[in-house]
UniProtKB/TrEMBL annotation:
Family (UniProt): Belongs to the adaptor complexes small subunit family.
One of the protein's GO biological processes: protein transport
Protein name per its UniProtKB record: Adaptor protein complex sigma subunit
A Pfam match: Clat_adaptor_s
Organism whose genome encodes this protein: Ceraceosorus bombacis
Cell location: Endomembrane system
Keyword annotations of the record: Membrane, Protein transport, Transport
C-alpha cells in the first residue's frame, strides 16, 4: 500500500507541477482521475508515472473538449433559457419563444 500511495503523490506532483492543497480542492476531478488510473476496485492497476500522467492529461483534454462543445451548443441556441425558465412558462411566453426559435431553423 505504501508503494501505491507514494506513486499517487508523485503522480500528483508531476501532473500539477509542484502540487499544493489548493490543487486538490479546486481540481478534485483531475485528482480523482489520477487516482482512478492507479487504483480501481481496491486493486493497483498501474505504477508507471509516465503512463499515469499521460492518461490523466488525455482525460483532462477530453473533458475540456467536451465542455467547449457543450458551450458551443448553448451559444447556438440563445433562446434555450427562455424555454426552460419557470418565469417564461408562467408568463405565457414559453410557447412564443419555442415557436420563434423553431422558425429560425425551418425557414
Amino acid at each position: 500500500m505504501y508503494v501505491s500511495f507514494r506513486v499517487f503523490v508523485e503522480a500528483l506532483d508531476r501532473c500539477f507541477e509542484n502540487v499544493c492543497e489548493l490543487d486538490l480542492i479546486f481540481h478534485f476531478d483531475e485528482v480523482h482521475a489520477i487516482l482512478s488510473e492507479i487504483i480501481q476496485g481496491g486493486l493497483v492497476l498501474d505504477t508507471s508515472l509516465e503512463s499515469i500522467c499521460a492518461n490523466a492529461s488525455a482525460s483532462a483534454r477530453a473533458r475540456k473538449k467536451s465542455a467547449a462543445q457543450s458551450s458551443a451548443v448553448a451559444a447556438a441556441l440563445p433562446g434555450l433559457a427562455d424555454w426552460i425558465a419557470p418565469g417564461g412558462a408562467a408568463s405565457g411566453t414559453w410557447g412564443d419563444s419555442w415557436r420563434r426559435e423553431i422558425s429560425r431553423f425551418t425557414q
